[in-house]
Amino acid sequence: MTSRRDFLTASGAALIGAASVSRVQAASLPEAISQTLPDTLPPQAPPNGRHFNPVVTLNGWSLPWRMKNGWKEFHLVAEPVVREIAPGMKANLWGYNGQSPGPTIEVVEGDKVRIFVTNKLPEYTSVHWHGQILPNGMDGLSGLTQPPILPGKTFVYEFEAKHAGTFMYHPHADEMTQMAMGMMGFWVTHPKDPKFMAVDRDFVFILNAYDVEPGSYTPKVNTMLDFNLWTWNSRAFPGIDPLVVRRGDRVRIRAGNLTMTNHPLHLHGHRFEVTGTDGGWVPKSARWPEVTTDIAVGQMRAFEFVAEHPGDWVFHCHKAHHTMNAMGHSVPTMIGVNQTDIAKKISQLVPDYMVMGDKGGSMGDMQMPLPDNTLPMMMGVGPYGNIEMGGMFSIVKVREGLARNDYKDPGWYRQPPGTQAYEWTGNMPAAPEAPPQRDALPSAPDQPVLNIKRGGVHEH
Ligand SMILES: [Cu+2]
């Protein structure tokens, strides 16, 4: 693994000699930096080019560049990677520069950007710069605007980053397979004026999803809707880092949706406003207060709030099955069903059979034998017990007096005395009873029992 710090030092040294190189030499490939850990790397001020306030990629990093004759040059390598989805589970994915998703690309409005894309996949690919206004031939549509990038080949994309905002990149070649395998990345074009839309903390992540059968390592690439791992930057809770902010900070969160369904992102304890959409910034007069914002397929959203209230505030997709990990959806509802007798009978046939959820779930407590390389459906342990969450779930940790660049997990919040829910230990009043029925209801005529099976097509 090459650390970003090492690279920046090395590229700084290389730049000293860069002024005198010829155009021919300038056409040499920039170093392809790789990162193999799923850690959130702290943001670093740009070493050259126009100044900007860098973003924080959740469980990810931003790609270093080199300046060459006024061009900002990046080198993406499309390749197979191993991504830890959460501690206890790894997946064989495809991505860029050692990771899925690939590194975030950060440029400034007006930058001339040159991206070298080397294909180390076993099949052709291309890169589409989702949301950018650019020349048609740079749009990355394999077969339409360019030939495919064959295995072993390198293509060059060149365009000006015309508009500040939130973008993504992903292949437009064998798209269903390549996106199901994790090929995608975030792109932020910062405003020319670093004071415009300035925030104290700016977090970015991609909403993505996988279908990895429990016990296996490679996603199924023909799945259309029935995914079983709902992830942010190819991480599932508790593998997603917390969003650590200082009380009083103005915080921006940007998310882009490359799954096949929408995600209503919900934040506890604060009201926010959507400040950026696919087409750019939302004027102040057109914003409204929210605690949930839905992000449709293919969309990017930026939203902002002032972190006024200290605490551990949950931030998650509000689709309940998107805050669960694999194996969640073939389980029947068994609330109120006494399964003791049936369990005895079934266990004669299936020795490992267990009773599930007759008191309403408690899946976080179930001691189920799991195959290797899978995550429990609901996990994460908090200061008061199981959190019983997975998937698209994290915690915004608002704390007093953090340093500007401090993103370290501060641990659990301690609620001040008198501000936490508590157990009632006084007397219970007698519950009122309904008066006895005077007339029994007329009995219904005999009718055939309809057995209507719910579902058919399930939306996920
Ligand atoms: Cu969701």
Describe this structure in words.
The chain has 460 residues and is mainly beta. It has helices spanning 4-16, 23-26, 175-180, 340-349, and strands spanning 56-57, 66-68, 71-86, 89-96, 105-108, 112-119, 128-130, 154-160, 165-170, 185-190, 201-210, 229-232, 243-246, 250-257, 263-267, 272-277, 280-281, 289-290, 292-295, 300-306, 311-317, 379-382, 385-389, 393-399. Strand 22 and strand 23 form a beta hairpin. The longest helix has 13 residues, at 4-16. It starts with a helix and ends in a 61-residue tail after the last strand. Mean pLDDT is 86; it is low at 1-25 and 449-460. The protein binds copper (II) ion. Residues 230, 263, 317, 319, 322, 392 line the site of copper (II) ion (CU).
Tell me the CATH topology of the domain at 4-314.
Immunoglobulin-like
Spans with pLDDT under 50 lasting ≥5 residues? 1-25, 449-460
DSSP strand count:
24
The percentage of residues in β strands lies in 25-35%
Text of the CATH class of the domain at 4-314:
Mainly Beta
* Overall body shape: globular
Cα-atom radius of gyration: 26 Å
Query: Helical segment tally?
Result: 4
**Class from helix and strand fractions:** mainly beta
- Tell me roughly what share of residues is in helical segments: under 10%
List the helices and strands and how they pair.
Elements: H1 4-16, H2 23-26, E1 56-57, E2 66-68, E3 71-86, E4 89-96, E5 105-108, E6 112-119, E7 128-130, E8 154-160, E9 165-170, H3 175-180, E10 185-190, E11 201-210, E12 229-232, E13 243-246, E14 250-257, E15 263-267, E16 272-277, E17 280-281, E18 289-290, E19 292-295, E20 300-306, E21 311-317, H4 340-349, E22 379-382, E23 385-389, E24 393-399
Parallel strand pairs: 1-11, 3-6, 5-10, 11-14, 13-24
Antiparallel strand pairs: 2-3, 3-4, 6-8, 7-9, 9-10, 11-12, 14-20, 15-19, 15-21, 16-17, 16-18, 16-20, 21-24, 22-23
